[in-house]
Backbone:
């Protein structure tokens, strides 16, 4: 039994969608053929079913890299070979608007977790084949998806230290979220293929304590779109 996920590894498919929100995991499980719960413990809610005839799982990892890393590590221990994150993110660029999709090619490691896993200069990069599959799947469904570098932070609501937004906007980073660097780093050091697609839910430099609202129609629609794209990519070529 995987101790934090409470999944029996024998029941775990090798291809898995991960997402922060347990509610989103349940919603995506509803898309699967014969989708059914596998386990529920802490923020980790797991489902299994099939997509285009291939067995897949959907597992929520909660908010933030440390808790998500526990999820990714246990899934890998349980035999996972491909992990694709279906998340949300705040945009850094004017032309990337709420409701748009972003496919992350790499993540700036501004999280604390990966500093305790790998040396400073180690890059957090998505698997090239998974990025290609996500791009192709988005295009096949006729969704425009922006492709590029995202930033992973630990902080959602700012404290007294300013956010690094301006610097990374200038550097061309597309969007900010809170788990991609953990996913890509753990994938690289454990030899597992990882990727991520994100629905933009606002602009990162908005005052999140007043303006954050990921429950709009445009964001809901983008999450539905990215879920289908990620499922298609997860089983492409199998
Ligand atoms: O929508 P999810 O997958 O949770 O992703 C984003 O949303 C959460 C913050 O609201 C963080 O987990 C961030 O990475
Ligand atoms: O971390 C996140 C996730 C969604 N939207 C944001 O602005 N930040």
Residues:
């Amino acid at each position: 039994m995987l101790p934090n996920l409470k999944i029996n590894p024998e029941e775990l498919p090798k291809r898995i969608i991960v997402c922060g929100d347990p509610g989103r995991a349940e919603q995506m499980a509803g898309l699967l053929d014969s989708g059914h719960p596998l386990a529920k413990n802490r923020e980790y809610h797991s489902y299994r079913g099939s997509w285009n005839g291939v067995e897949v799982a959907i597992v929520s990892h909660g908010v933030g890299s440390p808790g998500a890393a526990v999820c990714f590590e246990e899934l890998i221990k349980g035999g996972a070979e491909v992990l694709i994150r279906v998340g949300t993110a705040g945009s850094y660029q004017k032309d990337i608007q709420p409701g748009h999709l972003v496919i992350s090619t790499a993540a700036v490691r501004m999280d604390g977790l990966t500093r305790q896993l790998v040396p400073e200069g180690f890059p957090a990069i998505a698997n090239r084949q998974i990025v290609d599959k996500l791009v192709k799947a988005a295009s096949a469904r006729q969704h425009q998806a922006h492709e590029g570098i995202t930033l992973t932070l630990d902080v959602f609501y700012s404290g007294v230290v300013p956010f690094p937004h301006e610097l990374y906007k200038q550097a061309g980073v597309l969007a900010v979220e809170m788990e991609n660097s953990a996913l890509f780093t753990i994938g690289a050091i454990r030899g597992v293929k990882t990727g991520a697609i994100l629905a933009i839910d606002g602009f990162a430099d908005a005052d999140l304590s007043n303006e954050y609202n990921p429950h709009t129609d445009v964001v809901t629609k983008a999450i539905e779109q990215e879920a289908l794209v990620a499922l298609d990519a997860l089983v492409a070529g199998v």
Notes: The pocket of uracil (ligand 2) is lined by residues 88-90, 156, 176-178, 201-202, 204, 208 (CB under 6 Å). Residues 9-235 form a domain with the Rossmann fold fold (CATH 3.40.50.1580). The two ends are 27 Å apart (CA to CA).
